[in-house]
Amino acid sequence: MTTTETKWRIANKDRPNLSTVARIRLSLRRKTKGQKEKRMKTQISTLCLSLCLGLPVAVTGLTGCAGDRYERSTGEYIDDKGITVRVKSALGDSPEYKFKDVNVTSFKGTVQLSGFVNTSDQRRRAAEIAERVQGVRKVENNIILKEKTG
């Protein structure tokens, strides 16, 4: 007698009035029901794990890096920081003028110059220097001339 038969006889000992076929069907149902429950628990666990791991990635992928008309993507932000540094460096390296009172900001490749200079030539020259920097698409020159006191 095999182990399965022994288990079956022990499990069905309290049912003497059932036919052999009915006992076999009953024992198969018990095994199938247990297997189904186990399979369902495994599937539910797998689904929960997939959601827990996949949902943050999906949300980040859809919203975290996307840019629109008013917001920059992560890549555009990094590019703008690089442009700002290069423009500030170019203005600081200018042999004629040191543009210490000029502020530089950039957004999606557009550079905005603001601050104060002494002459209109300095204002024009700052815009020319900024336009030559790699990655600059457009320059907004908002530099104001200092009033002469005297």
Query: Globular, elongated, flat, extended or rod-shaped: what is the shape?
Result: rod-shaped
Oligomer: single chain
Helicity level, as a percent range? 55-70%
Highest-level CATH class of the largest domain = Alpha Beta
Supply the CATH architecture of the largest domain.
2-Layer Sandwich
What are the segments in which pLDDT stays under 50 over at least 5 consecutive residues?
none
Q: Tell me what portion of residues adopts beta-strand conformation.
A: 5-15%
CATH topology of the largest domain: Histidine-containing Protein, Chain: A
Number of strands: 3
Enumerate how many helices there are, as a single number: 4
What's this model, at a glance?
With 150 residues, the chain is of the alpha+beta class. It contains four helices and three strands.
Name the descriptors.
single chain; 150 residues; alpha+beta; Histidine-containing Protein, Chain: A; 2 domains; three-stranded mixed β-sheet; 4 helices; 15% strand; rod-shaped
Description:
The protein has 150 residues and is of the alpha+beta class. It folds into two domains: 3-61, no CATH class; 74-145, Histidine-containing Protein, Chain: A (2-Layer Sandwich). It has four helices and three strands. The chain has helices spanning 3-11, 20-64, 74-92, 120-131; strands at 102-107, 110-117, 138-145. The protein has a three-stranded mixed β-sheet with strand order 1-2-3. The relative contact order is 0.08. The mean pLDDT is 79.
Ordered list of secondary-structure elements with their pairings:
Blueprint: H1 3-11, H2 20-64, H3 74-92, E1 102-107, E2 110-117, H4 120-131, E3 138-145
Parallel strand pairs: 2-3
Antiparallel strand pairs: 1-2
